[in-house]
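Re: the request from the purification team.
They wanted to know what the chain is likely to look like in 3D before they choose a buffer screen. I agreed to run a prediction and write the result into the notebook, where they can find it.
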Amino acid sequence: MTVDPIAFDLVACRRHFLDHANPADAPAMEKYMRHQFNFLGIKQPQRRALLKTFMQVHELPQPSALPTVLQQLWDWPEREFQYIGCDLLDRCPLTPELLPTVELLITTLSWWDTL
């Protein structure tokens, strides 16, 4: 049985951030966002540091896999994963093939923090 590297990276990413969740901070973060989203309680500086640590071990998604990765990050209920998707978009070149996915992200779970 072969392991899909995209699914493996997503599973590892989710596990990495869930392992660093701070449930004590989540309620204040949810309140700040008017209870529009669930949070793990990982504030931006820590989230970015965790992503940096994660990216030292795992490569960026291949351009052809990026839409799948972004859509999965958007499907997870915790807002930090949408922020991770935005951070990945900042690191990857925007190609015409990616535009339908970007449009989907803009129109799904959109709020001031991800636009």
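For the purification team: Residues 21-107 form a domain with the Leucine-rich Repeat Variant fold (CATH 1.25.10.90).
Please add any questions underneath this entry.
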